[in-house]
Amino acid sequence: MGKTIFSKIIDKEIPADIVYEDDQVLAFRDIVPQAPVHILVIPKKPILNLKHVEPEDQDLLGHLLLSVKKIAQQEGLSNGYRVVINNGTDAGQTVDHLHFHILAGRSLLWPPG
Ligand code: DGP
């Protein structure tokens, strides 16, 4: 399988509006925002989705969630935010690289549909 669009963003082959980066994680603004704030948080390790995580990824998964918290603080999301992981076809996953959506800046409906 070739590189996904997110691997190309990690490798800086295509541009993105990056809001956070460290040795394990990259976060950037979604190109099709569904809310005033819409950020994608991804591991640099190319994991397809949650179905493909392994016990060895435990620390990385924790680090991703702590990064979400850090980014939410950095973005000033004091009114709250939603974190979404779409896994597979029925969930609407379109990019085969694990990603957390951070959505904020408006009142979000539930159930999501
Ligand atoms: P999902 O549907 O959960 O697989 O979300 C994939 C998201 O990725 C979708 O909201 C649009 C976003 N996206 C797709 N291609 C690009 C891109 O080239 N740049 C950025 N910043 N976001 C992208």
The total count of strands amounts to 5
Percent range for β-strand residues: 15-25%
Shape: globular
The strand line-up of the biggest sheet is 1-2-3-5-4
> Alpha-carbon distance between the termini?
31 Å
Nearest-integer average pLDDT = 97
Q: How many separate helices?
A: 2
What percentage of residues falls in helices of 4 or more residues? 10-25%
Low-confidence stretches: none
Bound molecules: 2'-deoxyguanosine-5'-monophosphate
Structure class: alpha+beta
Descriptive notes:
By secondary structure, the chain is an alpha+beta fold. It is 21% helix and 21% strand. The chain contains two helices and five strands. It has a five-stranded antiparallel β-sheet, with helices on one face. It is globular, with a radius of gyration of 14 Å. The mean pLDDT is 97. 2'-deoxyguanosine-5'-monophosphate binds at residues 5, 16, 28-32, 40, 86, 92-95.
Provide a quick synopsis of the model:
By secondary structure, the chain is α+β, with helices and mostly antiparallel strands.
